[in-house]
Amino acid sequence: MKSFEITSEAIDLAAFRRRLLDNACGAYVQFDGWVRDHNEGQEVLRLEYEVYTPLAVKEGLKIIDEAIEKFAISNACGIHRSGLLELTDVAVVVGVSSPHRAAAFDACRYIIDEVKQRLPIWKKEYYASGEADWVNCQHCAHPS
Amino acid sequence: MNQVSVRYFAAFREATGIEIEQLQTTAYSPAELFVECAARHDRLQSFSSALVAINDEMTGWDAPIEDGDEVLFFPPVAGG
Fold first, then answer.
1. Tell me, what DSSP letter sits at residue A139?
2. B50 chain-A contacts, CB cut-off 8 A
3. CA–CA separation, B41 vs B18, rounded Å?
4. What pTM value is reported for the model?
5. How far apart are the C-alpha atoms of A26 and A39, rounded to whole Å?
6. Which tens digit of pLDDT belongs to each residue from A77-101?
7. How deeply is B19 buried, as exposed, middle or buried, from its count of CB atoms within 10 A (0-12, 13-18, 19+)?
8. Which of A121, A124, A134 is facing B79, going by the closest CB pair?
């Protein structure tokens, strides 16, 4: 089983985990990314993800394939949210199952690290101060 | 001269105030095209960790641009 999706709906973690079940696997590792209430000294109230879905899915599947090739794993899936998210919402989930645990830990770490660096996804944080900013992009526009 | 479409995302879209534009350009690469676009849009600013795609394939800033291409300018990403 391998898959990568973008969804604007809340992620059903129990259903996600069931996809990775495999009689030949003795290990399952799952990473959830949650919306937290602070970033770089600012109090965060909520987030918005903008996703360019055609390329995010294509690149996500490429990363899943790379992980299956690099590590001794049997199954790998991921889902990333788009749209408005509240504190503690699950923003991203990655799950990996494998015969033995070491490969599952390594592959899960590889997938989430690559997803964060390569997928065309942008995060806007809404702060308690009333301001909102694109993360990693304070210098993408000259001041108006 | 090539006719290309340019799409801006997230902070780049907010900086230009537009999502997509059609341009006649002599730019050979996305890097050159971005300089032309920044000259058209005062607030658009180049950024070292920005990414680029042509026709829905991630590519390099020095890739060749051809007539009819759709060039996608992605500001630094922040998934997860």
1. T
2. 140
3. 10
4. 0.94
5. 37
6. 999 999 999 999 999 999 999 999 9
7. exposed
8. A121
In this prediction, residue A144 has a pLDDT band, given cuts at 50, 70 and 90, of: low
Please name the residue that has the structure tokens 């007539």. B67
Residue A87 phi, psi dihedral angles, 5° rounding: -55, 140
B16 near B8, Cβ under 8 Å? yes
Q: Fill in the amino acid letter for B12.
A: F
Give bridge partners of residue B75 from the DSSP assignment.
Answer: none
The pLDDT score that the predictor gives to residue A63 is: 98
Q: Which residues on adjacent β-strands are paired with residue B59? A: B52
Q: How many angstroms separate the CA atoms of A13 and A123, rounded? A: 22
Q: What is the pLDDT of residues B48-65, one digit of tens each?
A: 789 999 999 999 999 999
Question: ipTM beyond 0.85?
Answer: yes
CB A57 within 8 Å of CB A4 = yes
Mutate to test the interface with B, among A122, A136, A139 (most CBs of B within 10 A): A122
**CA dihedral for B51, B57, B63, B64, sign (positive or negative):** negative
Which one of B9, B53, B58 has the shortest CB-CB distance to A50? B9
